[in-house]
Amino acid sequence: MELFGSLLNSFNDNILPFIILIAVLVFVHEWGHYIVARLCGVTVETFSIGFGPELFGWKAKSGTHWRVAALPLGGYVKMLGDTDPASAGSDGKKLTKKQLKTAFFSQKLWKRASIVAAGPAVNFLFAILALAVLFSIQGQPFTPPAVKEVVKMSAAEDGGILPGDIITHVDNKEINRFEDLQAIVRDSAGVPLHVVVKRQNENVPLIVVPQTKSMTDRFGTEHQIGVFGIKGGLPQLEKRGVFSAIYHATIETYVLTKSTLHAFGDMFMGVRSSDEIGGPIRIAQMSSEVKQDGWLSFIWFMAVLSINLGLINLFPIPVLDGGHLLFYAFEAVLGRPLSEKTQEYMVKAGLTVILGLVVLSTWNDISRLEYFKNLVAS
After folding, report:
1. Which member of 2, 30, 179, 276 is catalytic?
2. Pairing of strands 44-59, 222-227
3. DSSP character string of 87-146
């Protein structure tokens, strides 16, 4: 009985948060495709959460078969006539004239593009909604950009920052909270920054060069970041009204999107290590860790992952939504779709890239496990 209770607790603490996280994000993404397809008059044959054998399902009045499958690592929406990775052809069945009108591949270009773009778009909308709810209920984390302490022999001390200064601008960007400053400085190691501080009601211009610091997060990943060497006051939570929460959630989503793109760009250029890329194992570990901090932290994590999911799906890699949109861009310019052979080659190249990323992320996940570290050490 104790063993059963231990296994149940382990499932609730480690596996259930991951399943909930993936199921919600997959549903949100695929629902975006589904709802716009329906609005465009396209027949949706299947809406699946997960892959593999069906655990349970039902058929809606619309004719869509809704299913929950055994492997909760993704999902899909299958539309009439949509069977190849490029979403370009028919499934080989002879469709009636009535069916052709509601088949995906026979729709106008703008409709196909709208359906494909809707998945990532709804991921971003979901993130904004989740953050807005958090900012309304819990409040938005906020630390006034006032300097409480300057670390000895730090970049801030070298640059002339003093305790009591209020940082108002960095490189002509307004600083409203300490978090705004951190977002700029952490990505600017070794780069001179033009800083304006308010000191005794006077604006004082300074130049500060952030020092490089190696930081290991709680999941074992090492990062090289820029630091000023200053300490701010205690963080506060500022509750927002409905419209203010939506506005600030939209800004926060933009900032998170921008920083994620910056991180991907740094990895591509070799500035940051690809060791930071994680897969399902790491997401499961992180979801378990965050869930222990409470549901509000879990919702924040879900919003951040939703942004990442939407962003990655917009990358112009065939088999991803961005790859489909790339095909449609060629079609719009050329006035016709790319040849089937060209699309086939591009899809194979895209699959190779995706498989490479899967292998890399899985390797990174495994190499972070304590058992693997001990095995290598021995």
Report:
1. 30
2. unpaired
3. S-S--SS---HHHHHH-GGGS-HHHHHHHHHHHHHHHHHHHHHHHHHHHHHT-EEE---B
Per-residue pLDDT tens digits for 36-64: 999 999 999 999 998 889 999 999 988 89
What's the whole-model pTM score?
A: 0.76
**In whole angstroms, what is the distance from residue 128 CA to residue 48 CA?**
25
Confidence grade of residue 8 (pLDDT, cut at 50, 70, 90): low
Which residue matches tokens 């999902």? 75
Whether residue 30 lies in the annotated active site: yes
- Give the list of residues 6+ apart from residue 46 with CB closer than 8 angstroms, or none: 64, 65, 67, 76, 77, 78
Averaged pLDDT for residues 352-366 = 63
What are 140's strand-pairing partners? 238
Whether 240 and 251 have beta carbons less than 8 Å apart is answered as no
Q: What is the mean pLDDT of residues 255-274?
A: 68
Q: Is the dihedral of CA 274, 275, 276, 282 positive or negative?
A: positive
Instruction: Rank 86-100, 107-121, 237-251 by mean pLDDT and report only the highest.
Output: 107-121
